[in-house]
Amino acid sequence: MDLTHRLRRLRQSRSIRRLVAETRLGVDDFVLPLFVTHGVKTRQEIASMPGHARLSVDLLPAEIEGVMSLNIPAVLLFGLPEGKDSLGSGAYAGDGVVQRAVKEIKRATPELTVITDVCLCEYTDHGHCGVIKDGKVDNDSTLPLLQKTAVSHAEAGADIVAPSDMMDGRVGAIRSALDNAGFTDVAIMSYAAKYCSAFYGPFREAAESAPAFGDRRAYQMAPPNRAEALREVEEDLAEGADIVMVKPALPYLDVIADVKASFPVPLAAYNVSGEFAMLKAAARLGWLDEKRTTFEVLTAIKRAGADIIITYHAKEMARWLAEGEDPLS
């Protein structure tokens, strides 16, 4: 047996393992999702997402102060309006909950990057991501509403808008609307490869966005499809996306790797609510070491190729990293 090459030599101590680590997590990798709701002094804990809550706009400054103290570079906002209608008008109202939240955050902390989710599902009384015609989500009549939503977010001060609806042509439509309104510097982070996933369950509770009928299979991607994701990404880049996203992350690490290998652009991955919830549940039952598992999960996402990780673990990860934690070495 030839033992000239002993790979274990570089595993003999923690310091050596740290020295040769191929993938490193840092707080700059993370985006923290936040749920903003109507009302005053309102904090509604989300049972399936421990540590997260729906916050009214007046409570945002304290939350953002904590985010800034942890050096998390960006937040992603989702809104819960006071009322809903068939056209999701709260999504593009000038005084909508996300619009007010963006203004409040930018007033207090202009240096924090604010990303806004652009979709109608939280604002429609039917819970779908677009306009309903003849019992189906109509792609083309939805685009003008997404344009209005994105422009209203830019007017409020958003740095990046993130269309998550999965309508065909929405990136090009939003880019055109932003440019025509003078917001040429506002970037688009496209939910380019967004799969129709069971892992969104806790989010739909948090955002009160479950469809009132049917499902989203007709516009979100089918989980068995891998090559199709590259077509979606290519289309969105051609239409003007600045950053592309794969969602969810863990069940689609192969897709993350494919996109990174194929396109030299910033790539985000969304470590979604269901991934977060099941880790938290297992940790609470004592079945998993929470810290070590969280590090392993997020390292896997980065190792697959993600440059940006949108995760509900962002705050606890930032604290652990600041303390010099490295349970994988």
Describe this structure as you would to a colleague:
The chain has 329 residues and is of the alpha/beta class. It has one domain (21-322): TIM Barrel (Alpha-Beta Barrel), CATH 3.20.20. Helix content is 37%, strand content 18%. The protein contains 11 helices and 12 strands. Helix 3 runs parallel beside helix 4 (139-156), helix 4 (139-156) crosses helix 5 (170-180) and helix 5 (170-180) runs parallel beside helix 7. The protein is globular. The mean pLDDT is 93.
Summary of the model, kept short:
The chain is α/β, with parallel strands linked by helices and 329 residues long. It is built from 11 helices and 12 strands.
CATH level-4 homologous superfamily: Aldolase class I
Residue windows where pLDDT falls under 50 for at least 5 positions: none
Cα Rg: 20 Å
Structural class: alpha/beta
Count of beta strands: 12
The overall pLDDT average reads 93
Number of continuous helical runs? 11
- How are the strands of the biggest sheet laid out side by side? 1-4-5-8-9-10-11-12
SSE run? HEEEHEHEEEHEHEHHEHEHHEH
Can you tell me the overall shape?
globular
Instruction: Report the CATH C-level class.
Output: Alpha Beta
Using the 3D structure, state the CATH architecture.
Answer: Alpha-Beta Barrel
Instruction: Tell me the count of domains.
Output: 1
Terminal Cα span = 29 Å
Strand content: 15-25%
Q: According to CATH, what is the topology?
A: TIM Barrel
Major sheet characteristics: 8 strands, parallel, barrel
